[in-house]
Amino acid sequence: MAQTLNGYEKWITRNSLGLDVGVFRSVIGNYNFTDDTGAQGAYTIFTVTGDVYIQQIYGACKVALTSDGAPTIEVGITGNTAALIAQTPGLDLDQYYLWQDATPEANPGVIILLGRSWLLQNGADIILTIGTADLTAGDIDFYCNWIPLSVDGNLVPA
Fold it and tell me: What are phi and psi of 4, to 5 degrees?
């Protein structure tokens, strides 16, 4: 297969992009607000290298989030901290809730498959940002389905 870039043709082969080109990969990351810290700030959930296409990302709350205040949480990248999952009141995530947008859903949650995908370039790590107030407990598993786009494209839990 050939691709035309800026007036010249570049052949794309299985070896030029790595094994299993075009195959979605899935990865699971976790953040525990008791073990990892619930303090306000940004925390890396997935480390990204190269360029990757993200088809979907969502969180599955395993232990309800708690706080003495009114915390906010969001998932994105440095410079756009709510790019992937919109800012949400942290206390809206109860046990077994699905978090993929500003309104978490009770179990069973419907995963949005169409209309939400992203291209992350140049190793932009995926971060969880805690704002407004500290969280004192809670546990979220983060699921991400993605495809590498560059030779060095990769996405792994932090």
Answer: -95, 120
Model confidence, pTM: 0.85
Domain range for 149 is 28-157
pLDDT for position 114:
63
Residue 12 lies in a domain: no
Average pLDDT over residues 93-103: 95
Do residues 93 and 138 make contact, with C-beta atoms less than 8 angstroms apart? yes
- Residues facing residue 56 across a β-bridge: 145
CA pair distance 72, 93, nearest whole angstrom: 11
- Residue 13: CB partners within 8 Å, gap ≥ 6? none
What's the total number of domains in the chain? Answer: 1
CA atoms within 13 A on the CB side of 24: 11
Question: What is the pLDDT, as a whole number, of residue 1?
Answer: 40
